[in-house]
Amino acid sequence: MGRNHFGDNIRHDNTRVFDGALWDGDINMKVKIALLFFCVIAYIFLPTTIILAFGMMPTIAAYSMDRSVGKNKTICVGLMNFAGCFPFLLEFWTEFGQQTVSNAFSLIADVQTVLVVYMLAAGGYAIDIAVSGIMSSFILQRSKKKLEKMQKEQKKLIDRWGEKVTGKYKLDDFGFPIRPIADKTAIPKDPEEAVQVSDKKDT
Known about the structure:
This protein is mostly helical.
């Protein structure tokens, strides 16, 4: 396989293969190999896989509903969810006897297991909501401070140069202010003024 002057890969049968297509093919192959390896490991340790599949359901649900860029909700719920599953996994590996499928189902059928695992997953949801609220309020307060600072700077400019730097004045061809721009959203207090304004709009 060679390259032409465009930098594209060319096979010996003169067919052009772009680097992007080759890169996508490599990624797809790596994903397939990783999935195959994961399936083999899951089948070898089938009892443990059953416990994790049942216990990590809240994490799977959070991942399917999470539309954020960094998947923060999934990470938060997943860590708390796994923290709830891990003690029962240790008990299953060390004190539960043989690691069989029937023992795995008996463990996940225990009410205490379900309560602990899912309550910690719910705690992950609560932590995510609390942290999101705190960060939102922090960003809001920071934005308000920036806005107040900008308004102070604008007031200094107006005090120094006058109202003509506010952008509320009509400019001539050379960029010099001529007259104030009428505020069309203002409501006239005098009824006669309101009639005059409506007549001007009609004309």
